[in-house]
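Input.
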Amino acid sequence: MADIVQQLPVLTGVVIGALASYLVSSATERAQWRRQQAARWDDKRVQVYADYGYSVKNVYIACLRIVENRGLNTKSVPADPQVFGEFERLATERTAKWESVLLLGNPETIAAARAWHRSIWQMEVIARGIRTDETAWAAILDKVNDARTRFH
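Output.
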């Protein structure tokens, strides 16, 4: 019995050392896993932002082409219906990309993307001939460029 009592401090030290080693190694592995996950999500987030930006830019360019085709006189001859078909496809693509931004984006980026999206809608209204205020066109273009800069 005396031998066990003499060995008790040694056994206690071994148990404490093993427990401490386990806790440190599991904390290290958990931290490493979190960093790897964050890096993977960051890569995915960047790709989603780039895809969304590209789709908004395509709608922007389509709006510019339609309005230029009209000579910025939105009361003139309407654009070719085929152009509007392509325009609708691009707008649908943008909407699909928007959902990914909402799922993966941080709040600041989502707010900036939403502002950009809304300014593009103002361009669409003029491109479709719904609004015919030609003096607002330059202001809308400035607004779109500012919103895009904030998104980036």
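The chain has one domain: 40-151.
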